[in-house]
């Protein structure tokens, strides 16, 4: 659906040349929710502006929906932008227009006749959960409702790709959740491809199928969300993952645990997907004559499944402890003995 090949974007400033996007290769599939995460200045906004043709790459090729957008003329670019629309952190609504008029705006520009516009606006109001609010003004709406207007407006001309530029960063956690739920539901209902940029791992965790991590203009890591959460490779990815999970505890914490629980064995279990739903602990306790103590635990849920870690102190007869560890292994749970006392 979207393919970037060796794309770079350089800006010439008074301070010299800035490489905002540096040799990025990406393939985004039709119908997926793809997240791009990075800290401020990583190049996310520039990348997303390249995807809708607002910026042209200094080098490289960008193909969206079969269309090479780096070389198309202004007129074709206008048509292209109807197929690739965008929502923004601060909504970018027209404050002097009602909600219905905001949503109708891109339809007017596309030359849709008035009666059709009206019907389409009603349809969109229903889709985003703003029935009956068409005559309100944006200033009368909450942040979440304003973003719903932004989403309805972005969907007006039936785009195939929705770009989301920090779409929930100005919202409180509860409202963020409701907007993310709405994005998932339109992704499923309309088969829309969604590309979002964010600095919040919660957003990636909650709705993305795949993620790319950006640092200094480069994509430094990319993959399925569950995989990246389980086995982050780069230091920056580990920092993002640790925002929401303590599965990558620093050595010190483990050492502390070993000091705190000197008896028996400390065993770290790593659960992925279905294994999170198995009653492994209760089976362990029933089957073996051991003391089992939960020392630390954490399960996170991503769109593609759950994952998490559990650290157990298992104490008792040496053979029983070994058998118990073998049993956990046999349940397809990745197991690591932290201390060998
Ligand atoms: N039009 C421009 N002219 C000059 N430099 C720019 C321009 N746009 C972006 N940059 C620079 O490119 C780099 C990447 O910026 P970009 O806004 O893409 O990052 P970001 O990850 O989106 O960060 P933020 O979330 O803070 O916007 C920064 O150093 C920025 O100053």
From TrEMBL:
It comes from Psychrobacillus faecigallinarum. Gene3D superfamilies: 3.30.70.260, P-loop containing nucleotide triphosphate hydrolases. The keyword ATP-binding applies. It comes from the Bacteria. The keyword Transcription regulation does not apply. InterPro entries: AAA+_ATPase, ABC_transporter-like_ATP-bd, ABC_transporter-like_CS, ACT-like_dom_sf, MetN_ABC, MetN_ABC_transporter-like, NIL_domain, P-loop_NTPase. Keywords: Amino-acid transport, ATP-binding, Cell membrane, Membrane, Nucleotide-binding, Translocase, Transport. One of its GO terms (molecular function) is ATP binding. Residues 2-241 form the ABC transporter domain. This is Methionine ABC transporter ATP-binding protein.
